[in-house]
Amino acid sequence: MAHCVYNPIFAFVCSVCLIGLSKSYLSIPLKIYPGKYNVSSRGGLSVTRLVALAPDGKGLSLASDPSGQVNFMDMVGNLQGDSGRGYYIELLIGTPAQRLNILVDTGSSNFAVAAAPHLFITSYFNTALSSSFRSDGQSVAVRYTQGNWMGELGVDRISIPNGPNGTISVNIATILTSEGFFLPGINWQGILGLAYPMLSRPDSSVEPFFDSVVKQLAIPDVFSLQMCGTGISASSVVDPPGGSLIFGGAEPTLYRGQMWYTPIVEVWYYQVEVLKLEVGEQNLDLDCREYNMDKAIVDSGTTLLRLPVNVYNAVVDAITRSSLIQEFSSGFWDGTKLACWMRGDTPWRFFPKLSIYLRDTNTSESFRITILPQLYIQPIADVDGTLDCYRFGVSSSANGLVIGATVMEGFYVVFDRANRRLGFALSNCAVSGGVALSEIDGPFSAADVASDCSGRALKEPLLWVISYALMAVCAIILIILLLLLVLPCRRRGYSGEITDQSSLVRHRIK
């Protein structure tokens, strides 16, 4: 019987191929904390007017048609929820319409709804009851930083009760199974991915929801978000309006002061360029490419401010040095412990402000968005009626910097896709006890940082090309090695015999 020995070269090639395949995997950063938060309601807005972006996308103008598609005031207050449980909007899906709450996520691109019962949701989209639903039978799966789901693609009609007028046909992924995606305490049954087609699954040919809205309702390619869950506590009323998602432009009554714009670096996520971070007034003095390691994105579906490991460690060290609290537990910083104070004794005075510098559309300048401790030292719940407890709203990240709800709650954010830029202004609801919880300043010179801090990492289409090329090269090399392994065995063994070890090699090729 022939005996074929272990070949170390073959093992090395296999490991290289496996590494190449693993690098082509794309994870979408969605992180929802399953805590039970409440948010206090805002006073109603009495101003009524119809506004839309001008055709050139610059500034605002009165809409010419009073019966047009975008009455922004009708959309004010159309979001519910908070950063812990996610912000969601009500949609009507199918014929006859089924009413569902859908999580708003600017960090992914699929519109997906539960299409089967689940322990943590109270309702789901029953495709059998919709005469307009059409399934194409194609499987789809999306994995997020936390959780994943699998299902099938289809098409159906939807309308937005507090959104643009009209009914449109959109791609829908029907979620049939999931793990860690639906969580206890949530009040939504699906996810509304508002990013670009490049993130669509299974591929970019699946047109995202907002792209369909823009095309079919002929509204400007812009939307804006106000998230009002800041300062939530266990004593607040349950589930009042949590903010506003404005389709087609920006509503001026939702923000104050100047709108500052930063370019969208790459059209996949809403990727921006971070120039530096400050804790208090202390610059972290890191290479600006550290802040953009892998990418820096703005993502409403992520709860916390997530920072690359080196940046995160520098921020924690700086807060620890500047904090008035001595020997603060490390478990608080890594999210394994809460910090508690006697009821009524707030911790804000112990912590500094956090500032993020973004490159301005005038690339030689930057502007600074700042959040107060009330936004990143977040109330969770009281303990036995005598303590108020808080968590740290910043975490480390292995896949880039993510400006999540922790920061976004301080600002009114305009996703101006028409001009490939994001706008930031002070949110009218980021106020607690008469104190503004966010600041925005500029312009500042960007002469002291690199002309390109983003790193311009290889994005998915090129990564897939490289991955397939690597797979092809690996396959050729493996075939050659297989022949080198098998032919000597055949010469010394029985004609045509395939040994157990060579069978294993064949399975590896598969």
Please explain how this structure is put together.
The protein has 510 residues and is α+β, with helices and mostly antiparallel strands. 20% of the residues lie in helices and 33% in strands. The chain has ten helices and 29 strands. The strands form six sheets. It has a six-stranded mixed β-barrel. A five-stranded antiparallel β-sheet has the order 15-14-19-20-29. β21 (377-383) and β22 form a beta hairpin. α1 (8-23) runs antiparallel to α9 and α9 runs antiparallel to α10. The longest helix is centred in the C-terminal third of the chain and has 33 residues, at 460-492. The protein is globular. The two termini are 26 Å apart. 44% of the residues are buried.
The whole-angstrom Rg is: 26 Å
**What value does the average pLDDT take?**
81
For the biggest sheet, the summary is: 6 strands, mixed, barrel
Through-space gap between termini: 26 Å
Secondary structure tally, helices: 10
Oligomer: single chain
- The unreliable regions are 1-26, 33-67, 233-237, 457-462, 489-510
Report the portion of residues in β strands: 25-35%
Dominant shape:
globular
- Number of DSSP strands? 29
Percentage of residues in helical conformation: 10-25%
Side by side, the strands of the main sheet go 4-5-10-6-9-8
Helix/strand-derived category reads alpha+beta
